[in-house]
Design goal:
Length: 120
C-alpha cells in the first residue's frame, strides 16, 4: 500500500497538542519514525502503523484536537475502507506509512501581529 500523506492544522499551541498527539500514536500501536520541524509554524511526523489499527489512529488524531484537511479525511477514510475488506491476519498486519504535516495557525496569527508592524 502506498504511503499516506496527510495535512492537518491546529489553533492550539504546539506544547499542548504534541504530547497528546504522540500519546495517541503510541496508544494505537503506531511507531514514530521521525519528527521534525519544517518551519516555525509547521511540523512533520513519519509514522508506521499496522492496518488493523488504522481506525484507532484516525480516531486518535481527530480526538487530539487536530483538524484534518479534506484530502486528509479522504485518505484515512479510503484506508479504513481497505481495512474492512482485508480479513486475514497477514493482511491486517500490513504496515502503513503515514506522513502527517501539522500547521499551527495560532502561531501564524501571533507571528503576523508581531512582525506586521503598525499600519500607516
Amino acid at each position: 500500500m502506498q504511503p499516506l500523506d496527510i495535512q492537518g492544522f491546529s489553533y492550539e499551541e504546539r506544547q499542548g497538542l504534541l504530547p497528546t498527539l504522540t500519546d495517541a500514536f503510541a496508544d494505537c500501536g503506531g511507531w514514530i519514525l521521525d519528527r521534525k520541524t519544517l518551519s516555525p509554524t509547521t511540523m512533520e511526523f513519519h509514522i508506521e502503523i499496522q492496518l488493523r489499527a488504522i481506525i484507532d489512529l484516525y480516531a486518535s488524531i481527530v480526538s487530539s484536537g487536530l483538524e484534518l484537511t479534506r484530502s486528509g479525511h479522504l485518505a484515512l477514510t479510503d484506508v479504513c475502507m481497505c481495512r474492512k475488506h482485508h480479513t486475514t491476519a497477514a493482511d491486517l498486519g500490513e504496515i502503513i506509512s503515514v506522513r502527517l504535516e501539522i500547521s499551527f495557525l495560532e502561531e501564524i496569527t501571533l507571528y503576523s501581529l508581531l512582525m506586521g508592524g503598525t499600519p500607516a
